[in-house]
Amino acid sequence: MSGPTMPAARRWLALGVLCSGTLLVILDGSVVTVALPIIQHDLGFSRSGLAWVVNAYLIAFAGLLLLAGRLGDLIGRKRVLLAGLAVFTVASLLCGVAGSSGELIAARFAQGVGGAMASAVVLGMIVTMFPEPGERARAIGVYSLVQASGAAIGLIAGGVLTQLLSWHWAFFVNVPVGIAAVLLAYRLFPAERGPGLRAGLDLPGAALVTGGLMLLVYAIVEAERHSWGSPRTAGPAVLSIVLLAGFVIRQATARQPLLPLRIFRSRAVSGANLVMLPLVAGMFGFQFLTALYLQRLLDLDALRTGLAFLPAPAAIALVSVGVAGRLAARFGPRTVLVAGLTAIAAGLLLLARVPADARYAVDVLPALVLIGAAFGAVLPALMGQAMSAATPADSGLASGLVNTTQQVGAAIGTAVLAALASARTGALLAQGAGSAAALAGGFRVAYAASAAFALAGVVAAVLVLRRPAKLPAGRPVDA
After folding, report:
1. Which residues form the Major facilitator superfamily (MFS) profile domain (predicted)?
2. Domain of 403?
3. What's the total number of domains in the chain?
4. Which of 185, 299, 310, 338 is the most exposed place for a label (fewest CB within 10 A)?
5. 293 near 359, Cβ under 8 Å?
6. What is the reported pLDDT for 471?
């Protein structure tokens, strides 16, 4: 039973399962962020080693998304989804019982592998299940809500679990949810064979892009602690460029490429990914910065920090499910993207004015609501554009591509904004400023940089998304 013939009620139930699996993967990142100080104390992490609780997951996740998406097209997206959820669930259990820093880092890498497999095919499955444009727009809106609000919800869950139970439960909570998702997905989704690995698993290309992406993300996260001129950063960065350049050459010449380059002839696909990169860089960095700001300057504990984020996912939910589809239908995705990205930049510029003695209701809350509402309008339009040229034969690839763009953007945003905030704070301390004033100054610079990322997305949308572009109906991008 394919998407078009699956009963409507079953399609929406299946969407709920896909979104639950996606939420599980997204929550894990922010839940762990809140628990990091306690994990450091309990397992004896060094300050630099603690970063690898996050980085090990991110490197595996970002590096494997593109390959996992293509595997879904070739051997069946259901198989890849089930395998990914199973690996993620087992790895979560191993994270929870880890008794040393090395065990936790290894389990987190395995979590990233499972998360990449599960996440890479979800958007492609949604596009296949909902062929009718109106239904597809609503389904993508629901998926976008989960993506946009998942990290903020994770901060709340992380605060509750860490404060009331222990950091171990930040991982244990994934186990029953993961098992339920595997069982429901097995029953709900039809079996898929796919054309098989011989139809397009470009092994040299897979090795080049996976190695290149992993090294790129490694170089970015290492740049937080070392300068770009350091051998620990510059070496992997240069090698990643060489590998990725080799991947592009390979895709241009291979008979069965992993990523057919003609997919980028679609302005919608190219533009959506170009907009996605700076948007996620700014938004991911914004969530990371705001969590630190609330804890360090407003003295909120983990639980109250999570609750302080609630207005953002609430605004995202109201707009992405209730309004975003109608806005895109009436004004067009490009107009919605330009207006929404401009509003996000405005909200971030409001935060760039926050003083050291800020009041949450006056100085933080209005910006959270504005940014959340704008993001709720932008993300569904962007996801729809990213998948607009995908056919059933390559929807997993298109899904993996947009997810890869998101993860690279998240790594860039975190590294750049953390470096800017640290440099500005250090400069102010050297000038004799108090610690609170110096911290606030660092946050203001980083928020301004986040706004610049959002405005870069506006430029990309204006220059590239000039008109809708679709490949001819029924023609796969690798035809």
Report:
1. 14-469
2. 3-201+256-464
3. 2
4. 299
5. no
6. 39
